[in-house]
Design goal:
Number of helices: 8
Oligomer: single chain
Radius of gyration: 24 Å
Largest sheet: 8 strands, mixed
Strand content: 25-35%
CATH superfamily of the largest domain: Vaccinia Virus protein VP39
Number of domains: 3
Distance between the termini: 50 Å
Bound molecules: S-adenosylmethionine
CATH architecture of the largest domain: 3-Layer(aba) Sandwich
Strand order of the largest sheet: 8-23-24-22-21-18-19-20
CATH class of the largest domain: Alpha Beta
């Protein structure tokens, strides 16, 4: 018998701050748990499928609410023990650590397929097996810490869950290597010895803001960058010192060099250097596998003109250069382009050229300078491409587009636009760059359909 149809009964709209007891059914894009209660869908941060949790409502709309888990009432039978814990709280950088690794891979793969089918309304592509991470822990080559205070002693760690004003001191972060942890501890020791105060955003007083630790995994080099207000204090034991006035949220600002200016790394047989402001994949080992998938999908024969759009320090283009006729990289950050040029020279690569430009306005001048591309590799930030940039991409008239995406929900509409304009989405392969987190990377191959 069919259920009687009719308007759905109105859900009870909870208040902000209200506590709900819910059972998590599944995971949403972005990694939050999904629960249903009294006709309402609740997205719960910090909870996994099968968990029964007490959750505090942070936002309430007509048909859905957002909440954060404040108490784990009954853990999911599928939960595995947390590995990375700071001050009794699970590490904020590893929100999926309670989920067995195989399940993490299944969720990521499913979410790529679901985004392309549901958001992009695409069918007929091959969703290939996800490439698992080489290391499930201690894989990050970059971590950013914040300073706080315990009494009048500076602490150095991560923000407590849902708190902008409380820092949990970190002893051993299992996302960082032992050397990276040691480097952080040395800076904390220096701050404590000198009794240097952490910056207090409410009182607009104090000095220490953040510490960024980067690591050359293959060179063993550790680079530390201290971020402070412009105060006077003893010389810190770091490589770089950034000063920021006022309450800007980030860590970018004028930076002085006290040690080594650039980080050295080795990747796919290349010797690379990068400035602190340039993007570099945070998982070195998996970046190599990711670029391997890009090379496989590009299928170069030695003569092609390849565009590497959103090229950072040029890594994708440089790794493809030996199999291409010529490579052209485009990137908005000028320091990254200077790094890319230096990297090409250092590795004796003469067929790679780089341009500092915004993809929005830079593709047409690139086409005038270089001519049309045979293959375009595109690797945008999480927001993906605007419709206008997709139109510029189409003007390249490439036979193949290899799209590296760190967000399947923004890949999907871009993919639909490319398909609408005459490309076929043939293959998609997810690559797990970020174990213990909901972040999903994948590579998609688009091939021009013959007219
Ligand atoms: C996901 S990273 C990829 C970098 C590089 N392909 C790699 O694998 O290291 C995205 C890059 O796009 C650059 N970017 C962001 N917005 C841009 C824009 N409008 N035009 C050109 N580059 C941009 C960022 O600076 C960053 O280097």
């Amino acid at each position: 018998m069919e259920a009687a149809s009719g308007p759905k009964p109105a859900a009870r709209r909870p208040k902000r701050g209200e506590l709900l007891e819910v059972e998590i059914e599944s995971l949403a894009f972005g990694g939050r748990g999904v629960a249903r209660t009294e006709g309402l869908v609740v997205f719960v941060a910090g909870a996994l499928p099968g968990d029964r949790v007490r959750a505090e409502v942070t936002k309430a709309k007509k048909r859905f609410a957002e909440a954060r888990a404040v108490e784990l009432l009954t853990p999911s039978p599928d939960r595995v023990a947390d590995v990375c814990v700071h001050g009794g709280e699970p590490c904020p950088g590893a929100p999926w650590q309670g989920l067995a690794y195989e399940r993490q891979l299944e969720h990521k793969s499913d979410q790529v397929g679901e985004a392309l089918r549901r958001i992009g309304e695409l069918e007929g592509f091959e969703l290939e097996e996800i490439v698992p991470a080489a290391e499930q822990w201690r894989y990050r080559n970059k971590l950013e810490y914040s300073f706080g205070e315990d009494g009048d002693q500076p602490t150095l760690g991560f923000h407590a869950r849902g708190r902008w004003d409380l820092i949990v001191d970190v002893d051993d972060c299992h996302l960082a290597s032992a050397a990276g942890n040691k480097a952080r501890d040395a800076v904390r020791d220096w701050a404590q010895l000198g009794s240097i105060r952490a910056y207090d955003g409410r009182a607009h007083k104090g000095t220490l803001r953040n510490l960024v630790v980067r690591e050359g995994r293959r060179t063993g080099q550790i680079q530390t960058r201290l971020v402070t207000t412009p105060s006077r204090f003893p010389k810190p034991p770091v490589d770089l010192h950034t000063t920021i006035e006022g309450d800007s949220g980030g860590t970018d600002g004028p930076t002085g060099v006290l040690g080594e200016e650039r980080l050295r790394e080795e990747l796919c047989g290349l010797k690379l250097e990068m400035s602190h402001g340039a993007f570099f994949q945070t998982n070195t080992e998996m970046a190599e596998r990711l670029y391997g998938v890009v090379a496989e999908f590009a299928g170069l024969s030695g003569s092609e003109r390849v565009f590497d759009l959103y090229c950072g320090i040029g890594t994708i283009g440089l790794t493809l250069a030996a199999q291409a006729g010529e490579v052209w990289g485009l990137e908005i950050v000028p320091e990254a382009i200077a790094d890319a040029e230096r990297n090409a020279e250092r590795n004796g690569i003469e067929n790679a050229h780089f341009l500092a430009a915004n993809a929005r306005t830079g593709v047409r001048p690139l086409l005038v300078q270089a001519g049309k591309a045979d293959v375009v590799v595109i690797d945008p930030p999480r927001a993906g491409l605007s419709q206008k940039i997709v139109r510029r991409l189409l003007e390249c008239e490439a036979k193949k587009i290899v799209y590296v995406s760190c967000n399947p929900t923004t890949l999907a509409p871009n993919a639909a636009q490319l398909v609408e304009a005459g490309y076929r989405l043939s293959r998609v392969r997810p690559v797990d760059m970020f174990p213990q987190t909901p972040h999903i990377e994948c590579v998609a191959l688009f091939e021009k359909v013959a007219a």
